[in-house]
């Protein structure tokens, strides 16, 4: 019989990666402690010692997800034009949502869609996490307006919100079975709606 508990050479990052997948597939509410500890290969005592309670573990999992699975979002912000920023983000997002080696959809969207426990704290935490990404995008788009890369009358906050609505909508559809080609078709339409500075000429 396998020995339960925190094994010698316990790899916290690997265990956290497995917790990410459980939360991603089942959501916060749907992931039981047994599901989590079985996937992580440790018992509850070891989980609490290494990661805290379930909510704290979820926070750690989301941070890990943002660092690894959402790295493309940071890369997108470094693109030289607003159009390239948005296209890079939405294309990479569509690819990430449909990776064969990961659950379909997005942890930050699916993790709390049906969350009603913990006083709504988990859903609020995920909403704040998504809003942080939206604000970073809005700041980048505001710079594009100042540089003349976007029309002067562009509302960077509204445009960033639009991009995130497309991204989050694609995440919901990916979780429902939409394939990569379908998501990129949505991105094609979204990109045509982007304002362009040269349209003012």
What labels would you give this structure?
mainly alpha, Tetracycline Repressor, domain 2, 201 residues
Structure description:
This is TetR family transcriptional regulator. It comes from Streptomyces lasalocidi. Keywords: DNA-binding, Transcription, Transcription regulation. It is elongated, with a radius of gyration of 19 Å. Helices cover 68% and strands 0% of the residues. The chain contains ten helices and no strands. It has one domain (12-193): Orthogonal Bundle (Tetracycline Repressor, domain 2), CATH 1.10.357. It has 201 residues and is mainly α. The longest helix is centred in the middle third of the chain and has 26 residues, at 121-146. The mean pLDDT is 88. The termini are far apart. The protein has helices at residues 12-30, 33-40, 44-51, 54-68, 71-77, 82-97, 107-110, 121-146, 156-175, 180-192.
How far apart the termini lie comes to 74 Å
CATH superfamily: Tetracycline Repressor, domain 2
The total count of helices amounts to 10
CATH topology: Tetracycline Repressor, domain 2
Q: How would you sum up the major sheet?
A: none
What would you report as the Rg, rounded to the nearest angstrom? 19 Å
């Amino acid at each position: 019989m396998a020995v339960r508990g925190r094994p010698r050479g316990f790899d916290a990052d690997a265990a956290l990666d497995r917790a990410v997948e459980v939360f991603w597939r089942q959501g916060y509410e749907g992931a039981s402690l047994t599901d989590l500890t079985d996937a992580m290969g440790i018992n509850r005592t070891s989980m609490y010692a290494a990661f805290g309670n379930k909510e704290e573990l979820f926070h750690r999992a989301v941070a890990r997800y943002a660092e690894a699975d959402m790295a493309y979002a940071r890369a997108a912000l470094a693109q030289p034009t607003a159009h390239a920023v948005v296209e890079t983000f939405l294309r990479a997002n569509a690819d990430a949502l449909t990776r064969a080696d990961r659950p379909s959809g997005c942890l930050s969207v699916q993790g709390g869609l049906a969350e009603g426990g913990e006083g709504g704290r988990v859903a609020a935490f995920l909403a704040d996490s998504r809003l942080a990404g939206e604000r970073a995008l809005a700041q980048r788009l505001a710079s594009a307006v100042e540089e003349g890369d976007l029309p002067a009358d562009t509302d960077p906050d509204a445009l960033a919100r639009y991009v995130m609505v497309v991204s989050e909508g694609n995440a919901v559809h990916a979780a429902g079975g939409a394939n990569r080609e379908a998501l990129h078709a949505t991105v094609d339409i979204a990109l045509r709606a982007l304002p362009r500075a040269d349209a003012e000429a």
